[in-house]
Amino acid sequence: MSHSAASQPAIARNSRPLTGEVRIPGDKSISHRSFMFGGLAAGETRIIGLLEGEDVLRTGQAMKAMGAHIEKKGEEWIIRGTGNGALLQPQAPLDFGNAGTGARLTMGLVGTYDMETTFIGDASLQSRPMGRVLDPLRQMGVQVLSAASGDRMPLTLRGPAHAAPITYQVPMASAQVKSAVLLAALNTPGITTVIEPIMTRDHTEKMLKGFGAKIDVETDERGVRHIFIEGQGKLTGQTIHVPGDPSSAAFPLVAALIVPGSDITICNVLMNPTRTGLILTLQEMGADIEIFNPRNEGGEDVADLRVRHSQLKGVTVPAERAPSMIDEYPVLAVAASFAEGETRMPGLEELRVKESDRLAAMAAGLRQNHVDCTEGEASLAVRGVPGGKGLGGGEAVKTHLDHRIAMSFLVMGLASQHPVTIDDKAVIATSFPEFMDLMTGLGAHIEAVEAMP
Ligand SMILES: O=C(O)C1=C[C@@H](OP(=O)(O)O)[C@@H](O)[C@H](O)C1
Ligand SMILES: C=C(OP(=O)(O)O)C(=O)O
């Protein structure tokens, strides 16, 4: 769906204690990869618990356009893939909507094919840098036939007859860039090496191994990861149980911490250590989060969380923790707005190139709602108001086609003295279509409001 249609404002009001138990929808990163790897592998892949958010469904459509059979039967998604190396040239541009992950990983996946592929997306996606993926692809022999200025979408790729394996050190902490090179390597003869100085989410490595790819990871004495992948091997369909998305769990989690009297349970949360930075940070801030029922499901650690309202205090979040909580900073800034003292968040340069410039969007929305904060080049500092007295009541927050900005400010309104309004809730469906129902089910006072003039 495009978000150019009339915007759908929403308002969140000071709420009674949040209570109850919720199950979090599937992880977005793992869901994208399930469609991609299932669509590529030979034989049948079954996916249980897929996130049916707009971003992920776009990836499914792209894989269909390149020859994969994908259908939903009951609660399961069943895929019959093309076999590695056998994707077909799509007949029309691939439209990735709002999804950076879908677009960037698919550029890697198809870039090394001897065919033309065009990538389009919404205004947010078109503003995001793609050079970070195109640069290594060019080294492998991929031509960028056309691109908007600054290597942006819309863009068209043409792969070489035979791609060249490379050794590539990822220049920024980005799982999308790492993954794009690994996926390009699948259709490249020989061994491609990706060097990752700062570890990011490792779903691509883990899942590709599960599908039968020849992939090895060595971590050197400095903690630098060297990932070796041999191309043109066989991938075989798998059964995948998608765990709940910790980046979505973050919203009810922070809501329960800031709304007095709350006591909720969040079930089925992925606990992969490359994704749990927010939980650790909130615990350091004094959050009462009990992690129970730990288990391993389909190769990933999963647990349930009991969360109770807590008086938070400000902390400094180590910059090196950023990759393990990169999408959670907006909602952490909301938690910090209710903490005693200052919360300092350095190392946030990547936030400037997400669905929106999240540093600028958060700082603007916080100020509008009377939170004292400082936006640095790559940092944010928030000085909180325990109890939320005087917070909220500003003009509608501009969400800039960014689902996480939208959900973060709705969470803020649940505990601030005055209501918080956002200009458009439609974008939430990109990652968490169940958000409004799930939150109101816990007792959150959130509702749509008449379209603004
Ligand atoms: O690989 C992934 O699934 C993702 C990687 C991260 O992006 P970057 O690689 O740009 O940090 C994250 O922000 C995004 O939501 C999902
Ligand atoms: C950054 C995000 O996603 P993407 O890059 O896939 O658009 C996100 O979901 O917060």
From TrEMBL:
Q: Which UniProt keywords apply?
A: Amino-acid biosynthesis, Aromatic amino acid biosynthesis, Cytoplasm, Transferase
Q: Which CDD domains match?
A: EPSP_synthase (cd01556)
Report the active site residues: 327 (proton acceptor)
Keyword Cytoplasm attached: yes
Q: Where in the cell is it found?
A: Cytoplasm
Give me the ranges of the annotated region Disordered.
Answer: 1-25
Q: In which pathway does it act?
A: Metabolic intermediate biosynthesis; chorismate biosynthesis; chorismate from D-erythrose 4-phosphate and phosphoenolpyruvate: step 6/7
Question: What would be an example GO MF term here?
Answer: 3-phosphoshikimate 1-carboxyvinyltransferase activity
Q: Where is the Enolpyruvate transferase domain?
A: 14-437
**Binding of phosphoenolpyruvate, residues:** 28, 100, 128, 176, 358, 404
Assign the protein's first listed, main location to one coarse class. cytoplasm
What EC number(s) is this enzyme filed under?
2.5.1.19
Pfam family example for this protein?
EPSP_synthase
Where does this protein hold 3-phosphoshikimate?
28-29, 33, 174, 176, 327, 354
Does this UniProt record's set of keywords contain Transferase?
A: yes
SUPFAM superfamilies in UniProt: EPT/RTPC-like (SSF55205)
Which transformation does this protein catalyse, written as a reaction?
A: 3-phosphoshikimate + phosphoenolpyruvate = 5-O-(1-carboxyvinyl)-3-phosphoshikimate + phosphate
Described function:
Catalyzes the transfer of the enolpyruvyl moiety of phosphoenolpyruvate (PEP) to the 5-hydroxyl of shikimate-3-phosphate (S3P) to produce enolpyruvyl shikimate-3-phosphate and inorganic phosphate.
- Family listed: Belongs to the EPSP synthase family.
Tell me, how does this one assemble? Monomer.
Name of protein = 3-phosphoshikimate 1-carboxyvinyltransferase
Q: Which organism is it from?
A: Aquamicrobium segne
